[in-house]
Amino acid sequence: MSSSEGERVSKSAGQQVSGLTHPLDARALIAVDLGAESCRVSLLRWIQGDPSMQLVHRFANAASQRGSESASQRGLRWDLARIVEGVEEGLRRCVEIATEGIRSIAVDGWAVDYVRLSPTGDAVADPFCYRDTRCAEAEISLHERIALEHLRALTGVQMQSLNTVYQLHADALAGEAGTWVNLPEYLLYRWGGEKVSERTNATHTGLVGLDGAWSPEIFAAAGVRVEDAPRIVEAGTVVGEYSGTIAGLRGARLIAPCCHDTASAVAGIPASGDDWAYISSGTWSLVGTVLDSACLSDQATQENFTNLGAAGGRVLFHKGMHGMWLLRQCMEEWNTDDVAGLVAAAHAAEGFSPEELIAVEHASLAQPGGMPDKIHALWDGVALEPARMARLIFESLAMRYAEVVRGIEEMTGKKLRRIYVVGGGSQNFLLNELTAKATGVEVLRGAVESSTVGNFAVQMGTLEGDVSAGSVAGWAEIVGRGASA
């Protein structure tokens, strides 16, 4: 991996901001990143014209069995009050630090999950988690009403039981209805913004047609009213001004960035040209490239690739699969949180032949609990101690990444020469090495908190009047310098 190559790419991308290196308005920006494992609140300040990005507050997040004991209410849900409390604690800390004032706030997070709203706009219950078992049941039910192949043809997205369309159908089967909004947009709405669905998040619902609008046909099949859906807006839309309880934030602009955290992470890559791919490596591994328009080939359909919204009106064309989820679930069983130690031990462990590797997308690996046993069942070999099981996971992921990268080249006609790995998994030196070996492509490590960089980059594009893909990439290069300062 060449550090000089990474520097060359960054400088090239930065030139796209028309020579601008910092804004005239030096007030700070706040980025909120909602994660399935942790949530973060970060601050971007301009210190003597130089960017300085600071993680102000981080707190753990996890879904748990919650709700009433009725069959339709009990399930795997997020603790919404705790999420709101944690985020707003971060906002208060930002106000204390940034005495120059706050210019804007934006929120990104994991896609597909949503908050149901009462007629008065209040949350009616803790939101379900996409891993709840009701999703698989709803998937079967929905495809009795609309064929999977037809749904795919209408949307161009990867068909996964976690998509919002299946969750809303599960609500309909349980007799629940009403307005809803995805989690990142819910926070913006709660603080005084308009109720919206930002395009990168909207496309992940499985409810948006190829024309970019909500599909009445899909809503009807799911038993959901299209009138209950939020208005779709583009990344970088100002949706209102903060009017919540934190006095120091009042009047700050509320911006919908790329609300889908993967789109935000890709927006945080300061890359130029068209010969690169990305791997967003976290709970999920998302392997893809950025296109000007959706890829709707037969191969893309057969291999279940997805076409999702990206910054600047472009398209994320990628394949999603389990990522660090597999390791994290094993670590819970092993009662350890030492990722670095496991990676080092796996590096020293004996490797595997290609025939021994597991299918990381196997359905049995989707639900929490008992992950080592589930992996053993797929591997069908002698019991593995933690270091070798970690190595098995990493080698299996790298092999799958290589298959996906080859498929992308076939479907798009691109020759990919660089892979940017972003997210927490980018720190896994062994997985990066295995990926480079399996793909034969140079692997460049991007920002660990690339979604935060992308969040700030879109905010800057909005505030400075240009949210084109080139402008966002340029701001990502500038903001990224502050992340490493």
UniProtKB/TrEMBL annotation:
Keywords: ATP-binding, Kinase, Nucleotide-binding, Rhamnose metabolism, Transferase. GO terms for biological process: rhamnose catabolic process. Residues 277-460 form the Carbohydrate kinase FGGY C-terminal domain. Coiled coil: none annotated. Residues 30-268 form the Carbohydrate kinase FGGY N-terminal domain. GO terms for molecular function: ATP binding; rhamnulokinase activity. It comes from the Bacteria. Gene3D superfamilies: 3.30.420.40. This is Carbohydrate kinase, FGGY-like protein. Belongs to the FGGY kinase family.
